[in-house]
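Hi Y.,

Following your request, here is the sequence exactly as I used it, all 163 residues.
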Amino acid sequence: MDLPPLVRDNIGEVLVKIIGFTDLRRSVLHGNIHNLHTAGYVPQDLPVLEFADVLDGAVTEHLQNHRLLFQDTLHIRFGPNGIMHIRPVIDEYAKTLLDSDPDEFLELQIDRLLENALNRMVAEQLIRQNVEGTGDLSQANVDEAMASGVFLDDPSSQPDSMD
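Below is the corresponding structure, written out as tokens. Let me know if you'd prefer a different format.
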């Protein structure tokens, strides 16, 4: 696939956001598993559908106006230099499972981790192909493309309820 440089850059930026999101989500889901037996623990997740809407809006903006624009939402904020801040949300469904059937809760978390890992692997492979398309494929360039400024906002604070 031979894409113009502007399209490659925009695709790469979207993919970097996906990788950053999946890295943070993995951490949140691991925390849920780690706290399986912690009394009163409230499971969290990242706002997956909200993130998908942000990406959809950015791609739509790119197609219509030839610019990539990430818009802030309730739980996702964008800062200078491509930095993205994400606030986790309470996972009500997982909380119900944790209270009623810890084995099902654990299975849900594992399923989500597997899905998340697949999303990350696909995005990483697409970045490798995108970098390869520039004719400048080195491990350092791939690693640099994937080193993103994505932060979990205030992880010690109480997350919002998942909508």
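Residues 102-133 form the longest helix (32 residues).

Thanks again,
Q.
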